[in-house]
């Protein structure tokens, strides 16, 4: 059995989508999966160093690592009318050079934020620390991600939705906001890469098919930070049927994100999603 190191974030949707493997509901005859959880920017930085075989990433990171990692079609999170939130204290007005806490340099929300607010002074923090940084006055505002968008202090209010920034930039009204994806090391043999994607895709499908049972188990084992009502709401946003296998609209959205980054001088090269997916047709032709 070849060992595959998999990294994902500790937020509820990633825990949910990967749990079918951890619980032994889904597996492989040739690959063994070992997972770890870390905040998304730690995973992004790890991907830049080639630390993991398979890893959750922010879609905005991918053009920096495409030489070393392929994109997976599964375990993806998109916003559609929702997403990260720029929050501040109530009854405050943000100056053009306001100080803001973001969850990481390579996150999708950070890229879109920098385009919309070029004069803001940015500090990067673990996503769990951002709300308190705003409440304490350490920063003027912060962008909340993951479960934090569902509930935050009554002292705070939403200044702007990152979704709204995306809508201003995307041009095509049908495109959802690409947030989190999965990448796989290109140095893996192609047959192993295809099997890895198959297992991860099956895990996301099984999780969705057994949502109520799995959600209850995650709460009983204290594996998520929210109650059942919040968990169901959150999974409905970010771990759903659209997370199993990227469709053409989602792929176009990823392409548009890459175009926006290239147009704004963030990426040195313009790439597209489709050519960087695992070529699953390889096994079909080999076995035909």
List the helices and strands and how they pair.
Blueprint: E1 2-8, H1 12-22, E2 31-37, H2 40-48, E3 54-58, E4 69-71, E5 77-79, E6 85-89, E7 99-102, H3 108-116, E8 121-124, H4 130-136, E9 141-144, E10 156-161, H5 162-170, E11 177-185, H6 190-209, H7 211-220, H8 228-238, H9 248-263, H10 281-287
Parallel strand pairs: 1-2, 1-3, 7-8, 7-9
Antiparallel strand pairs: 3-11, 4-11, 5-11, 6-9, 6-10
Describe this structure in words.
The chain is α/β, with parallel strands linked by helices. The protein has two domains: 2-79 and 178-287, D-Maltodextrin-Binding Protein, domain 2 (3-Layer(aba) Sandwich); 85-170, D-Maltodextrin-Binding Protein, domain 2. It is built from ten helices and eleven strands. Helix 1 crosses helix 6 (190-209). The longest helix has 20 residues, at 190-209. The model has no long low-confidence stretch (mean pLDDT 92).
